[in-house]
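Ticket #4471: structure output looks truncated?

Reporter: J.K.
Steps to reproduce: submitted the chain below (80 residues) through the standard prediction queue, then opened the result file.
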Amino acid sequence: MEVFACRATKDFAEKVIDCLNRNVRPGEQPIHLGQLEVTPFSDGEFQPIFTESVRGATVYILQSTVPPADNLMELLLCID
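Returned output as attached by the reporter:
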């Protein structure tokens, strides 16, 4: 399982990871927050980039959709 957080929910995601790791069974690896970078461009656009492989993993992306609309767009670009 991979958990990623977009820019608007970094603090919330860290709390979710802490809560999930409290329930990790002995011998299992703890869950970590995946690396996601968002590259801004000079025209106001941005591109999220996963810096680790998500191939074959169950992926959860945490992001608030509360305005501004950039939050929703960032989530949609990450899903894509």
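Triage note (M.O.): checked the attachment and the full token line is present. The mean pLDDT is 92.
Status: closed, working as intended.
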